[in-house]
C-alpha cells in the first residue's frame, strides 16, 4: 500500500510517516507540506492512499481532495485532522474522501484505516440507524447537514435542551464520540457507503 501524507506541521507529517512505515504492508512514498504540493505529489507518484489534513496553507485538504480525485481517481483520500466540524466532514465526503479520521485516534486504528478498502469514518456503524427513534433520525440527519443545536431546535420546533438530549442518545446508540462522527455517519448513510 503506497501512501502520501500532507500536513503543514512537520512533526505530524513525519511522525505519521514513521508510524505507517513501521507497518510492512505500507510504503510511504512522499510527504507534502501543503494542499497544492499534495495534488502535484499524488499526480507524480500515483499512491494508493493520500492522507490529507483539512487545514493547510495555499489550498485546504478538502479542495486538495477534490483535485486529487479529479486528476487521479484511483487514489483513495483519507482526511486526517483535528477538525471535528460537521461541515468539514460533510464537505470532505462530498468531494470524494473515503474517510474522515481524527488525529487523536489510536495508532493501530490509523494503520487499519489506511489498509482498509472500505470507506472509513471514525464512527461505528455497528448499530444500524433503525435503532434510532424517528426524532433521533431527524436529529442525526440535521447534524449531517452541519446544523448546530439551536438551528436543529428551530427546525424541529423543540427546545435546545431537547435537542441536546436527542444528540446524546444518538451518540450513545451509535457508539459515536462526538458530533463530527455523527455528521460523518449521517453523510455515509446518505451516500450509501
UniProtKB/TrEMBL annotation:
Any one GO molecular-function label of the UniProt entry: DNA binding
One GO BP: phosphorelay signal transduction system
Top-rank lineage group of the source organism: Bacteria
Domain HTH luxR-type: 125-190
UniProt cross-references to Pfam families, sorted A to Z: GerE, Response_reg
Annotated positions of the 4-aspartylphosphate modification: 53
Segment forming the signal sequence: none
CDD domains per record: LuxR_C_like, REC_NarL-like
UniProt keyword terms in alphabetical order: DNA-binding, Phosphoprotein, Transcription, Transcription regulation
UniProt keyword Transcription regulation present: yes
Domain Response regulatory as annotated: residue spans: 2-118
Tagged with keyword Glycosyltransferase: no
Gene3D superfamilies noted in UniProt: 3.40.50.2300
UniProt name for this protein: Response regulator transcription factor
Amino acid at each position: 500500500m503506497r501512501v502520501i501524507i500532507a500536513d503543514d506541521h512537520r512533526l505530524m507529517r513525519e511522525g505519521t510517516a514513521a508510524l505507517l512505515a513501521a507497518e510492512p504492508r505500507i510504503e510511504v512514498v512522499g510527504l507534502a507540506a501543503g494542499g497544492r504540493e499534495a495534488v502535484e505529489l499524488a499526480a507524480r507518484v500515483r499512491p494508493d492512499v493520500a492522507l490529507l489534513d483539512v487545514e493547510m496553507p495555499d489550498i485546504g485538504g478538502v479542495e486538495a481532495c477534490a483535485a486529487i480525485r479529479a486528476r487521479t481517481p484511483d487514489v483513495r483520500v483519507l482526511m486526517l485532522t483535528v477538525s471535528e466540524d460537521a461541515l468539514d466532514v460533510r464537505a470532505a465526503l462530498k468531494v470524494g474522501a473515503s474517510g474522515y479520521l481524527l488525529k487523536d485516534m489510536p495508532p493501530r486504528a490509523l494503520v487499519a484505516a489506511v489498509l482498509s478498502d472500505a470507506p472509513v469514518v471514525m464512527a461505528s456503524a455497528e448499530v444500524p440507524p433503525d435503532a434510532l427513534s424517528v426524532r433521533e433520525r431527524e436529529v442525526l440527519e440535521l447534524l449531517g447537514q452541519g446544523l448546530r443545536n439551536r438551528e436543529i431546535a428551530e427546525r424541529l420546533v423543540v427546545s435546545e435542551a431537547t435537542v441536546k438530549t436527542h444528540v446524546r442518545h444518538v451518540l450513545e446508540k451509535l457508539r459515536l464520540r462526538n458530533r463530527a462522527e455523527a455528521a460523518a455517519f449521517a453523510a455515509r448513510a446518505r451516500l450509501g457507503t
